[in-house]
From TrEMBL:
NCBIfam families the UniProt entry points to: aroFGH, PRK12755.1, PRK12756.1
Transmembrane region(s): none
Record's keyword annotation contains Protein transport: no
Species: Ramlibacter aquaticus
Keywords of the record: Amino-acid biosynthesis, Aromatic amino acid biosynthesis, Transferase
Keyword Secreted: no
Name of the featured protein: Phospho-2-dehydro-3-deoxyheptonate aldolase
Pathway, per record: Metabolic intermediate biosynthesis; chorismate biosynthesis; chorismate from D-erythrose 4-phosphate and phosphoenolpyruvate: step 1/7
Length: 361
Protein backbone atom coordinates (compact mmCIF):
# COMPACT_ATOMS: atom_id res chain seq x y z
CA UNK A 1 0.00 0.00 0.00
CA UNK A 2 1.17 3.50 -0.78
CA UNK A 3 2.23 5.13 2.53
CA UNK A 4 0.32 8.29 1.61
CA UNK A 5 -2.88 6.35 1.03
CA UNK A 6 -2.31 4.46 4.27
CA UNK A 7 -2.04 7.76 6.21
CA UNK A 8 -5.24 9.02 4.56
CA UNK A 9 -7.13 5.87 5.55
CA UNK A 10 -5.98 6.15 9.16
CA UNK A 11 -7.06 9.84 9.30
CA UNK A 12 -10.50 8.98 7.93
CA UNK A 13 -10.94 6.40 10.68
CA UNK A 14 -10.43 9.12 13.30
CA UNK A 15 -12.93 11.75 12.08
CA UNK A 16 -16.73 12.17 11.94
CA UNK A 17 -17.37 8.81 13.56
CA UNK A 18 -20.75 9.95 14.86
CA UNK A 19 -21.81 12.15 11.94
CA UNK A 20 -24.67 10.53 9.99
CA UNK A 21 -24.90 13.09 7.19
CA UNK A 22 -23.48 16.43 6.05
CA UNK A 23 -25.74 18.57 3.84
CA UNK A 24 -24.98 21.85 2.02
CA UNK A 25 -26.11 25.06 3.72
CA UNK A 26 -27.04 28.21 1.82
CA UNK A 27 -24.62 31.09 2.43
CA UNK A 28 -25.87 34.16 4.32
CA UNK A 29 -24.91 36.35 1.37
CA UNK A 30 -27.05 34.34 -1.05
CA UNK A 31 -30.07 34.33 1.28
CA UNK A 32 -29.79 38.08 1.81
CA UNK A 33 -29.45 38.56 -1.95
CA UNK A 34 -32.65 36.59 -2.50
CA UNK A 35 -34.48 38.33 0.37
CA UNK A 36 -32.91 41.77 0.72
CA UNK A 37 -33.80 44.47 3.22
CA UNK A 38 -34.83 47.39 1.05
CA UNK A 39 -33.99 51.00 1.90
CA UNK A 40 -37.27 51.56 3.76
CA UNK A 41 -36.76 48.49 5.98
CA UNK A 42 -33.14 49.44 6.67
CA UNK A 43 -34.18 52.95 7.69
CA UNK A 44 -36.86 51.62 10.04
CA UNK A 45 -34.51 49.16 11.73
CA UNK A 46 -31.84 51.82 12.19
CA UNK A 47 -34.44 54.03 13.87
CA UNK A 48 -35.76 51.24 16.08
CA UNK A 49 -32.27 50.28 17.20
CA UNK A 50 -31.52 53.89 18.17
CA UNK A 51 -34.80 54.07 20.07
CA UNK A 52 -34.08 50.83 21.95
CA UNK A 53 -30.59 52.04 22.88
CA UNK A 54 -32.06 55.32 24.14
CA UNK A 55 -34.43 53.41 26.44
CA UNK A 56 -31.65 51.08 27.62
CA UNK A 57 -29.48 54.06 28.61
CA UNK A 58 -32.30 56.08 30.13
CA UNK A 59 -32.27 58.79 27.48
CA UNK A 60 -35.85 57.85 26.56
CA UNK A 61 -38.21 57.58 29.57
CA UNK A 62 -40.55 55.06 27.94
CA UNK A 63 -40.69 51.39 28.90
CA UNK A 64 -39.31 48.85 26.44
CA UNK A 65 -41.78 45.95 26.23
CA UNK A 66 -40.68 42.79 24.40
CA UNK A 67 -43.87 40.81 23.92
CA UNK A 68 -44.93 37.90 21.74
CA UNK A 69 -44.98 34.11 21.42
CA UNK A 70 -42.57 31.95 23.36
CA UNK A 71 -41.53 30.64 19.93
CA UNK A 72 -42.61 30.99 16.32
CA UNK A 73 -43.97 27.82 14.77
CA UNK A 74 -46.30 29.22 12.09
CA UNK A 75 -45.64 32.33 9.98
CA UNK A 76 -49.27 33.21 9.32
CA UNK A 77 -50.17 33.03 13.00
CA UNK A 78 -47.14 35.18 13.81
CA UNK A 79 -48.26 37.80 11.29
CA UNK A 80 -51.80 37.70 12.68
CA UNK A 81 -50.35 38.43 16.11
CA UNK A 82 -48.06 41.13 14.68
CA UNK A 83 -51.02 43.01 13.18
CA UNK A 84 -52.79 43.10 16.53
CA UNK A 85 -49.63 44.15 18.33
CA UNK A 86 -48.85 46.86 15.78
CA UNK A 87 -52.21 48.56 16.40
CA UNK A 88 -51.65 48.50 20.16
CA UNK A 89 -48.03 49.64 19.84
CA UNK A 90 -49.12 52.66 17.81
CA UNK A 91 -51.81 53.57 20.34
CA UNK A 92 -49.33 53.39 23.25
CA UNK A 93 -46.20 54.74 21.53
CA UNK A 94 -45.92 57.81 23.76
CA UNK A 95 -45.40 55.57 26.80
CA UNK A 96 -44.12 52.22 25.48
CA UNK A 97 -41.58 51.11 22.91
CA UNK A 98 -43.05 47.77 21.87
CA UNK A 99 -40.85 45.10 20.26
CA UNK A 100 -42.39 41.84 19.05
CA UNK A 101 -40.80 38.71 20.43
CA UNK A 102 -39.89 36.63 17.32
CA UNK A 103 -37.97 33.63 18.63
CA UNK A 104 -36.83 31.02 16.08
CA UNK A 105 -34.41 28.95 18.18
CA UNK A 106 -35.28 27.11 21.38
CA UNK A 107 -32.70 25.87 23.89
CA UNK A 108 -33.69 22.49 25.28
CA UNK A 109 -32.81 21.15 28.72
CA UNK A 110 -32.61 17.64 27.21
CA UNK A 111 -34.22 17.08 23.79
CA UNK A 112 -37.25 18.39 21.93
CA UNK A 113 -38.29 20.64 19.05
CA UNK A 114 -35.42 23.07 18.51
CA UNK A 115 -37.33 25.82 16.77
CA UNK A 116 -38.56 27.14 13.45
CA UNK A 117 -35.13 27.50 11.85
CA UNK A 118 -34.01 24.01 12.80
CA UNK A 119 -37.27 22.18 12.01
CA UNK A 120 -39.81 24.38 10.18
CA UNK A 121 -42.10 21.42 9.38
CA UNK A 122 -42.30 20.37 13.06
CA UNK A 123 -41.65 16.76 12.09
CA UNK A 124 -37.97 16.10 12.63
CA UNK A 125 -37.10 16.62 8.96
CA UNK A 126 -34.62 19.41 9.88
CA UNK A 127 -34.95 21.43 6.68
CA UNK A 128 -32.68 24.16 7.99
CA UNK A 129 -32.21 25.90 4.64
CA UNK A 130 -35.97 26.32 4.40
CA UNK A 131 -36.17 27.37 8.04
CA UNK A 132 -33.61 30.14 7.51
CA UNK A 133 -35.48 31.38 4.45
CA UNK A 134 -38.88 31.36 6.16
CA UNK A 135 -37.47 33.07 9.24
CA UNK A 136 -36.02 35.85 7.13
CA UNK A 137 -39.25 36.21 5.15
CA UNK A 138 -41.20 36.61 8.40
CA UNK A 139 -38.82 39.21 9.82
CA UNK A 140 -39.10 41.21 6.60
CA UNK A 141 -42.90 41.02 6.71
CA UNK A 142 -43.01 42.18 10.33
CA UNK A 143 -40.64 45.07 9.59
CA UNK A 144 -42.81 46.13 6.65
CA UNK A 145 -45.80 46.18 8.99
CA UNK A 146 -43.89 48.79 10.98
CA UNK A 147 -43.07 46.68 14.03
CA UNK A 148 -39.56 46.06 15.44
CA UNK A 149 -38.57 42.46 16.14
CA UNK A 150 -36.52 40.91 18.93
CA UNK A 151 -35.05 37.42 19.09
CA UNK A 152 -32.76 35.18 21.12
CA UNK A 153 -29.39 34.43 19.57
CA UNK A 154 -28.71 30.80 20.36
CA UNK A 155 -26.80 29.35 17.39
CA UNK A 156 -23.55 31.18 16.68
CA UNK A 157 -23.95 31.06 12.87
CA UNK A 158 -27.63 32.00 12.43
CA UNK A 159 -27.11 35.72 13.17
CA UNK A 160 -25.35 36.06 9.82
CA UNK A 161 -28.65 35.16 8.16
CA UNK A 162 -31.13 37.28 10.13
CA UNK A 163 -29.43 39.71 12.53
CA UNK A 164 -29.70 42.65 10.11
CA UNK A 165 -33.50 42.50 10.61
CA UNK A 166 -33.40 42.38 14.43
CA UNK A 167 -33.82 45.52 16.56
CA UNK A 168 -33.16 43.94 19.98
CA UNK A 169 -31.67 40.61 20.96
CA UNK A 170 -31.29 38.34 23.97
CA UNK A 171 -28.78 35.83 25.23
CA UNK A 172 -30.60 33.16 27.21
CA UNK A 173 -30.10 31.93 30.76
CA UNK A 174 -28.30 28.80 29.55
CA UNK A 175 -25.82 30.74 27.41
CA UNK A 176 -25.19 34.00 29.33
CA UNK A 177 -22.09 32.42 30.87
CA UNK A 178 -20.84 31.16 27.48
CA UNK A 179 -17.70 33.02 26.33
CA UNK A 180 -18.71 32.46 22.71
CA UNK A 181 -22.09 34.15 23.20
CA UNK A 182 -20.52 37.06 25.04
CA UNK A 183 -18.12 37.50 22.14
CA UNK A 184 -21.02 37.29 19.69
CA UNK A 185 -22.91 39.99 21.63
CA UNK A 186 -19.86 42.25 21.52
CA UNK A 187 -20.13 42.40 17.73
CA UNK A 188 -23.90 42.48 17.19
CA UNK A 189 -25.38 45.72 15.86
CA UNK A 190 -28.40 45.88 18.21
CA UNK A 191 -28.90 46.12 21.96
CA UNK A 192 -28.58 42.79 23.78
CA UNK A 193 -30.16 41.60 27.02
CA UNK A 194 -28.34 38.95 29.06
CA UNK A 195 -30.60 36.83 31.27
CA UNK A 196 -29.54 35.82 34.76
CA UNK A 197 -28.56 32.17 35.18
CA UNK A 198 -31.06 29.36 35.62
CA UNK A 199 -30.28 29.33 39.35
CA UNK A 200 -31.29 32.97 39.56
CA UNK A 201 -27.76 34.26 40.05
CA UNK A 202 -27.24 37.75 38.63
CA UNK A 203 -23.46 37.93 38.91
CA UNK A 204 -22.89 36.00 35.67
CA UNK A 205 -25.19 38.42 33.83
CA UNK A 206 -23.28 41.39 35.27
CA UNK A 207 -20.04 39.74 34.14
CA UNK A 208 -21.57 39.25 30.70
CA UNK A 209 -22.24 42.99 30.42
CA UNK A 210 -18.57 43.69 31.06
CA UNK A 211 -17.49 41.04 28.55
CA UNK A 212 -20.06 42.04 25.93
CA UNK A 213 -18.98 45.66 26.14
CA UNK A 214 -15.34 44.80 25.51
CA UNK A 215 -13.59 44.16 22.16
CA UNK A 216 -12.87 40.55 21.18
CA UNK A 217 -11.29 38.49 18.41
CA UNK A 218 -12.76 35.11 17.52
CA UNK A 219 -13.38 32.69 14.68
CA UNK A 220 -16.62 32.84 12.70
CA UNK A 221 -18.22 32.62 9.27
CA UNK A 222 -18.52 35.52 6.84
CA UNK A 223 -21.60 36.31 4.75
CA UNK A 224 -19.97 34.43 1.88
CA UNK A 225 -19.56 31.30 4.01
CA UNK A 226 -15.82 31.73 4.50
CA UNK A 227 -14.22 30.98 7.87
CA UNK A 228 -12.55 34.13 9.19
CA UNK A 229 -11.31 35.95 12.29
CA UNK A 230 -13.71 38.62 13.52
CA UNK A 231 -12.50 41.55 15.63
CA UNK A 232 -15.25 43.43 17.46
CA UNK A 233 -15.47 46.91 18.99
CA UNK A 234 -17.68 45.89 21.93
CA UNK A 235 -21.40 46.49 22.40
CA UNK A 236 -22.19 49.39 24.74
CA UNK A 237 -25.97 48.75 24.54
CA UNK A 238 -26.13 45.60 26.68
CA UNK A 239 -28.32 45.16 29.76
CA UNK A 240 -29.45 42.36 32.08
CA UNK A 241 -32.81 40.58 32.26
CA UNK A 242 -34.12 39.29 35.58
CA UNK A 243 -36.02 36.03 34.91
CA UNK A 244 -35.91 34.32 38.29
CA UNK A 245 -34.36 30.93 38.86
CA UNK A 246 -34.32 27.80 40.96
CA UNK A 247 -34.10 30.01 44.04
CA UNK A 248 -37.40 31.67 43.15
CA UNK A 249 -38.58 34.91 41.52
CA UNK A 250 -36.38 38.02 41.44
CA UNK A 251 -38.61 40.88 40.28
CA UNK A 252 -39.41 42.54 43.64
CA UNK A 253 -38.13 45.97 44.63
CA UNK A 254 -35.56 44.27 46.89
CA UNK A 255 -34.42 42.04 44.00
CA UNK A 256 -34.07 45.05 41.70
CA UNK A 257 -32.01 46.84 44.35
CA UNK A 258 -29.75 43.81 44.84
CA UNK A 259 -29.22 43.39 41.10
CA UNK A 260 -28.39 47.06 40.67
CA UNK A 261 -25.87 46.85 43.51
CA UNK A 262 -24.08 44.11 41.58
CA UNK A 263 -24.19 46.20 38.40
CA UNK A 264 -22.74 49.19 40.25
CA UNK A 265 -19.95 47.01 41.65
CA UNK A 266 -19.21 45.77 38.11
CA UNK A 267 -18.99 49.37 36.90
CA UNK A 268 -21.85 49.15 34.40
CA UNK A 269 -25.12 51.09 34.07
CA UNK A 270 -27.87 50.25 36.55
CA UNK A 271 -30.63 49.59 34.04
CA UNK A 272 -32.45 46.27 33.73
CA UNK A 273 -35.41 44.44 32.23
CA UNK A 274 -37.79 42.07 34.03
CA UNK A 275 -38.98 38.87 32.36
CA UNK A 276 -42.52 38.26 33.59
CA UNK A 277 -42.39 34.59 32.55
CA UNK A 278 -40.13 31.64 33.41
CA UNK A 279 -39.21 31.37 37.08
CA UNK A 280 -40.61 34.82 37.86
CA UNK A 281 -44.08 33.47 37.16
CA UNK A 282 -43.23 30.06 38.64
CA UNK A 283 -43.87 28.77 35.09
CA UNK A 284 -47.57 29.55 35.49
CA UNK A 285 -48.34 31.70 32.48
CA UNK A 286 -51.35 33.48 34.02
CA UNK A 287 -49.10 34.83 36.79
CA UNK A 288 -47.28 36.99 34.26
CA UNK A 289 -50.08 39.51 34.82
CA UNK A 290 -49.34 39.53 38.56
CA UNK A 291 -45.61 39.99 37.93
CA UNK A 292 -46.23 42.80 35.44
CA UNK A 293 -48.53 44.60 37.91
CA UNK A 294 -45.88 44.45 40.63
CA UNK A 295 -43.24 45.82 38.26
CA UNK A 296 -45.68 48.45 36.97
CA UNK A 297 -46.25 49.63 40.54
CA UNK A 298 -42.49 50.01 41.01
CA UNK A 299 -42.26 52.00 37.78
CA UNK A 300 -45.24 54.21 38.63
CA UNK A 301 -43.61 54.84 41.99
CA UNK A 302 -40.59 56.33 40.28
CA UNK A 303 -38.24 53.34 39.81
CA UNK A 304 -36.16 54.43 36.81
CA UNK A 305 -33.68 51.56 36.79
CA UNK A 306 -36.33 49.25 35.34
CA UNK A 307 -36.16 50.05 31.64
CA UNK A 308 -38.27 47.22 30.27
CA UNK A 309 -40.32 44.06 30.61
CA UNK A 310 -40.67 40.84 28.66
CA UNK A 311 -43.99 38.99 28.31
CA UNK A 312 -44.79 35.67 26.61
CA UNK A 313 -48.05 36.13 24.73
CA UNK A 314 -49.85 34.53 21.80
CA UNK A 315 -53.23 34.77 20.10
CA UNK A 316 -54.77 32.19 22.44
CA UNK A 317 -53.75 31.25 26.00
CA UNK A 318 -51.86 28.20 27.21
CA UNK A 319 -49.80 25.67 25.29
CA UNK A 320 -50.21 22.42 23.36
CA UNK A 321 -48.09 19.37 22.60
CA UNK A 322 -46.87 18.33 19.19
CA UNK A 323 -48.51 14.96 18.51
CA UNK A 324 -48.24 13.06 15.21
CA UNK A 325 -51.51 13.14 13.31
CA UNK A 326 -53.18 15.59 15.72
CA UNK A 327 -53.98 19.03 14.23
CA UNK A 328 -52.63 22.00 16.17
CA UNK A 329 -54.93 24.60 17.66
CA UNK A 330 -54.65 28.00 16.01
CA UNK A 331 -52.61 30.59 17.86
CA UNK A 332 -51.57 28.36 20.78
CA UNK A 333 -47.91 27.98 21.73
CA UNK A 334 -46.15 24.64 21.25
CA UNK A 335 -43.37 25.50 23.73
CA UNK A 336 -43.94 27.53 26.94
CA UNK A 337 -47.50 28.49 27.81
CA UNK A 338 -48.41 32.08 26.90
CA UNK A 339 -50.99 34.67 27.80
CA UNK A 340 -53.72 35.08 25.22
CA UNK A 341 -54.25 38.35 23.39
CA UNK A 342 -57.31 39.18 25.49
CA UNK A 343 -55.11 39.28 28.59
CA UNK A 344 -52.15 40.91 26.81
CA UNK A 345 -53.95 44.02 25.61
CA UNK A 346 -55.00 45.31 29.06
CA UNK A 347 -51.58 44.39 30.46
CA UNK A 348 -49.91 46.64 27.87
CA UNK A 349 -52.25 49.47 28.77
CA UNK A 350 -51.44 49.06 32.46
CA UNK A 351 -47.73 49.25 31.65
CA UNK A 352 -48.31 52.37 29.56
CA UNK A 353 -50.11 54.00 32.47
CA UNK A 354 -47.21 53.16 34.79
CA UNK A 355 -44.71 54.61 32.34
CA UNK A 356 -46.78 57.76 32.03
CA UNK A 357 -47.02 58.10 35.81
CA UNK A 358 -43.24 57.76 36.18
CA UNK A 359 -42.64 60.39 33.54
CA UNK A 360 -44.93 62.75 35.39
CA UNK A 361 -43.08 62.45 38.71
Amino acid sequence: MNPLNEDKAETTRLEDLRIRQVSPLISPALLQHDLPADAAVQSRIEGWRRAVADVVHGRDPRLLVVVGPCSIHDSEQALDYARKLKAEADALQDDLLVVMRVYFEKPRTTVGWKGFINDPHLDGSFRINEGLRRARELLLAIARLGLPAGTEFLDLLSPQYIADLVSWGAIGARTTESPSHRQLASGLSCAIGFKNGTDGGVQMAADALVAGGAPHAFMGMTKMGQVAVFETAGNEDCHIILRGGSRGPNYSAADVQAACALLAKAGVEQHLMVDCSHANSSKQYERQVEVARDVAAQVAGGERRIMGLMVESHLAPGRQDLKPGVPLQYGVSITDACLGWDATQPLLRDLAAASRARRGR
